[in-house]
Design a protein that fits this description.
This protein is 49% helix and 12% strand. It is an alpha+beta fold. The chain has a four-stranded mixed β-sheet with strand order 2-1-3-4, with helices on both faces. A two-stranded antiparallel ribbon has the order 5-6. The protein has a two-stranded antiparallel ribbon with strand order 7-8. The longest helix is centred in the C-terminal third of the chain and has 25 residues, at 206-230.
């Protein structure tokens, strides 16, 4: 059973945006926790599955856990006396999404095609998969808004990008997703986004899920800039702090710890 004497554990993996944000948040809040990297770690994955979870980030204490995609859920689970960052209005979030996905497509076009098949740093997945994922996050959200089905982990993590996709192919896919997102917003009647939406990390108002659908690819777009810089390529019109202001992003772009 969960008790206040049991140490908090955080299950995470490199390159995971919510994982890094969760660890930074807990550190700022003064929470002592055990950091468990599940990437390539069979024992850690078995421990995670024993809890009843199969995706990260997860914050656990004893045999109880919470998915950490929404910081408010972590705050409630641990009984912390802090408030989550104020959420931007839905209209402002859509403006940020336009800025972020446009930039992501621009950066992907700058990546040399052979580099797309290589992993980056301590995450064993090709850069191609990361580039596709930036846009798939948004596409998965749109699919759930259209069909009313739960926004599942499998839905946003689906990788349907053939290995031979070029940077231009990936960028074009991203621009098509952005066009669909803009069309959805124009047609969506509830501009407050107050309706509850089922997701793999619990039921939340569309507003909260939309916020995650914006900041999640924004963080990955910061990673695309980092990839370009590591290749000695200056990102074309890099996103600034002002561009991303108001989004609940981690301080760092990549998790090495």
């Amino acid at each position: 059973m969960q008790t206040t004497t049991e140490r908090v554990r955080v299950f995470w993996q490199p390159g995971c945006t919510s994982c890094l944000r969760t660890k930074e948040f807990l550190t700022r809040a003064g929470v002592d926790y055990e950091s468990i990297n599940v990437h390539g770690n069979d024992a850690a994955m078995a421990e995670l599955r024993k809890l009843g979870a199969r995706s990260v980030p997860v914050v656990a204490r004893g045999d109880q856990f919470v998915f950490a995609q929404a910081i408010g859920d972590v705050i409630g689970f641990l009984g912390l006396k802090v408030k989550p960052q104020e959420t931007l209005a839905p209209e402002a979030l859509m403006q940020k999404l336009d800025l972020v996905l446009t930039a992501a497509a621009r950066y992907i076009r700058q990546i040399p095609a052979p580099e797309l098949q290589k992993p980056f740093r301590n995450r064993n997945r090709p850069i191609r998969a990361l580039a596709f994922h930036v846009f798939r996050i948004v596409e998965g959200f749109l699919e759930s808004m259209q069909d009313g089905k739960e926004l599942t982990y499998d839905r946003i993590m689906r990788d349907e990008a053939p290995a031979n996709l070029s940077p231009e192919d990936l960028a074009h896919y991203g621009e098509s997703v952005l066009a669909r997102a803009k069309a959805w917003w124009v047609a969506y009647p509830d501009k407050s986004c107050a309706k509850p939406m089922p997701t793999y990390f619990g039921e939340h108002p569309v507003h909260i899920v939309l916020e995650r659908t914006v900041w999640h690819p924004a963080q990955h777009t910061r990673q695309l800039m980092l990839i370009l810089e590591s290749l000695g390529i200056a990102p074309d019109r890099p996103l600034s702090e002002a561009d991303l202001a108001g989004l609940p992003l981690p301080e760092k772009a990549w998790d090495e710890d």
